[in-house]
Amino acid sequence: MNTVRVELRHLAYEANARTHKYEDFKKTYIFVSEQLSEEETKLSVKAPPPELLAQLVRNMIYPNVLPESIPELLEVLHNIEQWRRKVWARADLVLVSTQYWKDQSSGLTDRDRIAFQAIVDSHEIVRYNFVEILRRYCHWHLHHIWEHGSVNDFLNTFSYYFPMLANNAEGYPLLKHLDAYETGKFAELGKVWLNFVSEWLGKVAGTKADPQIEIYAEDRLQREAAAYLVLVQQQIDTLERALDKEKYEHRIAKRKA
């Protein structure tokens, strides 16, 4: 698994150093396919490493966001968020442990403790930003379908993203991982669309003005997702640099080679 992560970081480093191209996707695809075909690999039976997940996200949003892949994109982002939450939980546990056993050396430097505390302190705002990214991509997806798809496509997608407003027991599986407040934020977005459709119907009937609905530009969506990926990787690096220096230094050295 560590060898896989080394090569994935190397591929991601190359891709981020220039404009994203089809060749970047092709290289990653070939590498992962070869790894999955080897009997000794653990990639096929373990959770995908964050480097692979991050590269999948980049392939889905560069050079353009792929509207038809947005549900899958959000699932990948959710799995990256699970990695981040593990890092947050572990950093918090380490800090609590060092406080509890003050008379025993933990091996952490003051710099490590400050970095871990920053991870813990930033958890709530990073989580909030993550949920906002999900909402904005859902919003952008619905707008794309409204502009370019059919009525049935729009209604089905609306029901998928906002089952709480459409009496849909199935709904988007990702919503099961959100708490009540976060689910409420999704419901708010759904109500924005309900109001928009209501106003649009009024416009068709000639009783209301042409309705408008604001969305983020595609490049802003790309920047926000990319910034989130960078932040998560930085937090993973921070944890591994302090708790597993040998493997971390090996990966970073290979990436920069």
Based on secondary structure, the structural category is: mainly alpha
Low-confidence stretches: 36-45, 248-257
Provide the β-strand percentage band.
under 5%
Number of DSSP-assigned strands: 0
Shape: elongated
How helical, in percent, are the residues? Answer: over 70%
First CA to last CA: what distance? 19 Å
Taking all residues together, what is the mean pLDDT? Answer: 80
Radius of gyration: 21 Å
Tally the structural domains.
1
* Element-by-element helix/strand order: HHHHHHHHHHH
Number of helices: 11
* Sheet having the most strands: none
Coiled coil: 229-256
Keywords: Coiled coil
Tell me what you see in this structure:
The protein has helices at 2-16, 22-37, 50-61, 70-100, 110-121, 123-148, 151-161, 163-166, 180-204, 218-243, 245-256. The chain starts with a helix and ends with a helix. The chain is mainly α. The longest helix is centred in the first third of the chain and has 31 residues, at 70-100. It is elongated.
List the helices and strands and how they pair.
Blueprint lengths: L1 H15 L5 H16 L12 H12 L8 H31 L9 H12 L1 H26 L2 H11 L1 H4 L13 H25 L13 H26 L1 H12 L1
Keywords: Coiled coil
Q: Could you give a short description of this structure?
A:
74% of the residues lie in helices and 0% in strands.
